[in-house]
Amino acid sequence: MLFFINFDTQRVTLDNLIREFIFLLNMSGAGTGYDLSSTTYNPEGKVYQVEYAMKAAESGGSIIGLKCKDGIVIGGERNVLSKMLVQHSNKCIFGITKNIGAVVTGVIPDGKAVISRARQEATQYAEFYGKDIGSTVLADRVAQYMYLFTLYGGLRPFGCSIIMAGIDDGTPKLFLIEPSGAYFEYFACASGKGNQVCKTEIDKLNLSELTCREAVYHIHKMLVKSREEGQEKRYEVDISWMNSETNFFLVPVPVEFKDEMERKAKDDIESEERGD
Amino acid sequence: MENFAIEPAPSDLSKAGIYLNPDVNGMGQERMGTSIMAAIFNGGVIFGADTRTTMGAYVASRISDKIECIHEKIFCCRTGVSAHTQALARYVRYYLSQHVLNEGKLPLVLTAARLLQELLYQNKAFLEGGFIVGGWDPVNGSQLYEVALGGTLVSQRYALMGSGSTYIYGYCDAEFREGMSQEECTKFIKKGLALAMARDGGSGGCERLLVVTPETVTREYVPQEEFPYNLR
User: Fold this and answer.
1) B16 within a domain of the structure (yes/no)
2) pLDDT tens, position by position, B152-180
3) 3-state class of B36 per DSSP?
4) For chain B, how many structural domains are there in total?
5) What is its EC number (chain B) (predicted)?
6) Is residue A208 helix, strand or coil?
7) pTM attached to this predicted model
8) How many Å lie between the alpha carbon of B115 and the closest alpha carbon of chain A?
């Protein structure tokens, strides 16, 4: 578009080309002043602070949510930053009510702030209306809260994406909430660094027939596949589920079963790579 | 409780020589010396109320309606200062309509009762009113709650309130049964209210009934001639 306008009305001189180059460079955002505040649009009509927040969210560990035949499973991975770190001290799955939980990626402290707000909303709701909040309503409220942080000059948007899972009157629900405040309900969703790989893997699954136990295996498989090749960072995987086995409470998957599925997933991927 | 420092507006009443003393609690305000009751039968809930509204000794209305709609299948009976209870019912109706828009499904009866309780409790220094809240919801079926003066919430099978209720506790204890038919329950309430109105000076006029079932809501009006009991 820009090119055409220049081509039609101006002669292509070195001077014009340089000007064009600088203009295009500026469109990337940095240094133009359009990205200093979330109250400023860029000429395309986007808010750069929100775009940056999305990027921050996409740079965290992969997280996955799967709605299964018999319940719902959420999982996520996070790098172990140091060998001195106590195991399981940096979780990415958080309980909100007894049957609503969330897994976060991106800037984890941002995620924690949102989770604590979600817990507050949930308890306030129960106190006020005399019944537990539904995950549909809670997802909406959390999304509104995150949206508010894209509106004010003194605030920055949350650098985290959140997959919220819950059971509303016996029906499993799954939501992905983004830093922009946009949220959608999914059968299955992924976010974080390896979300593309995860999504292509999810496409191969038959979700209407998948059981929670199978889903744990598939989540492990997706997480291993989505890690970059040759990267030997240590990492931990959190997986929690809600199904009839757990009385539809959000509960971490039993460790032995989780480890078994992890081993199986890794073995299968290895043998796939060897080509047998 | 503090008295309400409300000056009565110079009205036709004072011109007519009826003096309303604001220092005496309740005088100068429309209030309902009331007989209200409700009971659960095998297919839903029946509410009943008298129709008298008083200002002190003056009968301000002989045909008032003390059974109010909160939502499609949720209703309440009001007792106490008319202005207070009408305002409270209006607030709960408003909150509940917002709540329903958020949820996209029918509200719980308990939610309505809980909202009333919250309003009564938070403003207990200013409000004088009590409610019987009841109706039907898809989750918990037919229910009845008593929300009393300071914000007490009690779940009941049958509930009585208002000044007239004191005269008929014995009658209700003796006559109420679980799982009555609609006719039996209607009879039970009609007679209870008639007995209360016969003894209580604050209650009177006619009877209004309202039946809530999962499918329908029907009202009934009972004129004095048709009362099953009258003091003569």
Assistant:
1) no
2) 999 999 999 999 999 999 999 999 999 99
3) strand
4) 1
5) 3.4.25.1
6) coil
7) 0.80
8) 6
Contact A110, A158 (CB under 8 A): yes
Question: 3-state DSSP call for residue B108?
Answer: coil
B36 close to A (CB below 8 A): no
Say if B25 falls within a structural domain.
no
Domains of chain A: residue spans and CATH = 65-274 (3.60.20.10)
- For residue B113, which residues of chain A lie inside 8 Å, CB to CB? 130
Residue A221: closest CA among A205, A241, A244, A240 = A205
Q: Is the pLDDT of residue B70 over 90?
A: yes
* Separation of first and last alpha carbons in chain B: 38
Q: What is the pLDDT of residues A224-260, one digit of tens each?
A: 998 866 567 788 999 999 999 899 999 999 999 999 9
Q: Is the pLDDT of residue A5 over 80?
A: no
The band of A8, judged by pLDDT with boundaries at 50, 70 and 90, is: very low
CATH number at residue B62: 3.60.20.10
Residue B69 in any domain: the answer is: yes
Please say if B111 is a catalytic residue.
Answer: no
Name the residue range of residue B165's domain: 33-225
- Decide if B100 is inside a domain: yes
Catalytic member of B34, B51, B85, B111: B34
Phi-psi region of B104 (alpha: psi -120 to 50; beta: other; left: phi over 0): left
Alpha-carbon distance B69 to nearest alpha carbon in chain A (angstroms): 18
Supply the ipTM of this predicted assembly: 0.72
C-alpha distances in angstroms, A242 versus A66, A112, A171, A211?
Answer: 11, 21, 11, 11
Chain B residue nearest residue A133, CA to CA: B103
Q: Is B90 left (phi over 0), alpha (psi -120 to 50) or beta?
A: alpha
d(CA A221, CA A136): 29
